[in-house]
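Quick log. Single chain, no ligands specified.
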Amino acid sequence: MVEDGLCSRCAAAVVAELTPAPGTEPVADAPLPPRVPSAPYDPGARWALLRSPNGLATLAVALLCLVAAADLAAVLAGIGEYRFLADAAGGDWSRLDGADARRIDELYVWAGRIQLLTLAASAAGFVAWFLRVRDNAHVFVPSGQSKARAWAIFGFFVPVVSLWFPRRIALDTWHASTAEPELGRGRAWMVDLWWVLWLGDLLIGRVAGNMYDSAETVDATTSATGMVIFADALDIVAAGVAVALVRALTGLQNQKVQARSESLPTVSEGPTVSEGTSRN
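-> predicted structure:
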């Protein structure tokens, strides 16, 4: 995946130049560039090593696209189920016991199962990427992270705090990753859009699920199916915005790393630290 002019391999190479392995000693007396402010290796946080987010970003985007595809299949299956139920509610019971009805029901059930599998996989991929960019943000601005590192994972799952912790971490990461923090704050609307859609999707999905589970009449099941279709469509939009967020934040970090690499003085002579001692 290319993010603002950097492919995954190029980004990893630039990151490696800025992230020496801890304990590495310079060869002889070769002049080396000074440490960058907010050093890539922070003795107070040994996990805080600058690493390329591109690979995990590619994985997260691919899994989110699978979620959107599964949601689209569920929407199409749901429309078939809704039409069947609407016919039954209108008094047309001719297809109730036919093979067509069984096929529609089976398709709807399988669509739901595929949704669950893709959602679980995309959640794992997204959280892995989220942790990586949060770690990089700590390298950029160690004092700019208001939440502990562990909340980048558990903040999505712990009740109550899950309503705002991930958004706060995403905002801190966004601001730390921008080349000009004040300008970056104006562009952080994407974080808020992602979070509003995420919360709305969770709320509507839960309401739709409860309606479907508690429906006891054909009319109630028809209404619940319509709500489920709406929830699935909203999930497609939420997945699309999440993809945009992953690409935008990954691009910001690539730009910042590239700018910092270009600002380092060039060493024209003398041996350098071998590539084998770099940390990716």
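The helical segments are 8-18, 54-89, 99-140, 151-154, 165-177, 181-187, 189-214, 218-263.
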